Amino acid sequence: MVQFIPFLPATGVDAKRQLFFVVTKGWANPRCQVPNPLPCTAIPKIMGSMTPRNHQLDTSIEIVTPENVSFRYHVAGPFRRLPAFMIDVVLQAIVITISGRMIVFAMLVLFGVSGAFLGVGFYLIFAFVISWFYGGLFETYWNGQTPGKRLTRIRVIATDGQPVSGLQAVLRNLLRAIDCQPLVLYQFGLFSALMNNRFQRLGDLAAGTMVIVEEREWFQGILRIDEPEVLRLSQRIPPSFQASPSLARALAAYVQRRLAFPVARRVEVARHLAEPLARRFGLPEGINPDHLLCAVYQRAFITDTPGDVLEPVKPFQADGSSASSVPPGVVSRTDSGESPFASTSTGEGAKP
Amino acid sequence: MKVSDLLQSRRKDWSELEMLCLHFESKRNVRREPERLTRFAALYRSLCADLALAEAYQLPPEVTRYLHRLVGRAHNQLYRSREFTMSTWASTLLFDVPRQLFHDEYLRLAFFVFWGAFVLSAILARTQPGFTAAVLGAEQMQQMEEMYETPLSELTQQARGAMLGFYVFNNAGIGLRCFAFGLVFGIGGMLVTFYNALNIGTVFGHMSTLKQWENFSEFVTAHGPFELTAIVLSAAAGMRMGFALINTGGLRRIVALQQAATQATPVACVGVILFVMAAMIEAYVSPAAIPYGYKAGVAVLSAGLLMFYFIGLGMAQEESR
What is this model's ipTM? Predict the structure, then answer.
């Protein structure tokens, strides 16, 4: 009954959630879980309030802005938040120990022994403020980020997409005291995060906040194909050709992922779409289906004349923040490494 | 128009917006640069339009993903967190919180749990000989007895500053933990409150049977009102959150929790402020070598302030509405 249907390696599809989904809702075909209200109402309400979850298969959350456009965020899961948390804990420990010694020493030098005692008092008050309000204050004044979150590029926002308010930031950090129970290993928080679809720990639930990934990505242009066979083949497709939306999506998805497959597999996948297309354009039999799809892609997305293609944009190197961005070389992902296989016929070269 | 031409024409704007995002992300005060800000807003709006039309333009998925991320990034720079302002916090703490507490049944519950357990354990500790040892343990009992053996006037006064910090760190920490534990369906908060009351009540009851009672009572008089009220307040704030999960008032549990938590957080903050005031009194007034009358005066004054806060401010709001 329960059947796991593997997806294409789409970015952002969280394998754990997918698995969880298939295990808990195996009776529904996971392929049908596009936002479609009809199956949700038709399903008997076994899961109670969990039914709306069917809308969300991966970890993305849709937000409608005041500009009336909806965009998607990826929610940060426990393992994305752990490094940020570790950084913050280490930072707090360092600040508390170093500043404590400095305060006590300074007071000792300035006011003698009784001053040193007062220094210990200040130090303890400081430690109290840091240990309870560090997250709350940083998230308020740094727009939802602590130093650790900033380094790991995650941010706290309200669940409706608005920025976090000071009250919410303080609240979600005060409730860490319950989240980290029972053994200061965050079992409560982890359990709570795994039980809802926004990875909210108890403090997040009470404050109505969530942690999202703020990915920086530099614009890379669209994928080009440099293979000469493809460019030659694209000349034989009429320049006025307009791809339908679904065909355009399929072509883009195929071209983006084809390099992950061995040549024989590419041919096998591409044949289903390439054969009707070849008939439509009146092309002879025996054309490599992989090349044909690439050629159609070339016609549909890139300029009418071959060779006139986008140059890759140089990513900005300000403050060294382009670490997560893809290096520029990726843009012109050519098949040069595999060209001996690509140029041969379909029979051999199944393993690259 | 082919996609590549479209991208060619739009990429300049997108890159400029990327740069502006980078600029604003590292800046605290963005209001100082109106030209950049207006340019940013214009670019952001056009980016939103591009994203909305991405489907119609038949952009490839990776470009759409890029647009989603850039809109998200710019959105977070345009809509920034609301910071604390003194006036809103003052009005919340001085007017909203007392009015809310005046009608808060959980404050009454916390009050009765705390004082009920306190009085009960004090009576038990006074009358039943084995009770104190069972609650506190022999070691802590002996520690307490030794601590109050010397009269207050003979204490070393140097360590007061350190004690101030210790009282804030320890007591306010207990209060906040009490608040957080309230989230567990209110039971956690009740247990913590009960445990604290049991401990404190037992110490009171036990001390009253000993010769150290005079030193002890002189020490605890001045800061008692603030400190004990602060514990009750923290517990009540926690219970408000926890019981909202049970008594939802017809809302979804999660919504009820969020509403209650929003109301309870300022109460917990009042608790912290009371703990800090109590710590100051405990460090500098309670152990001082001054006549008992002054300390009693401080206690009466702080009790009066609390009365004014809870009843005076709570009622005044009631009439003005």
Answer: 0.84
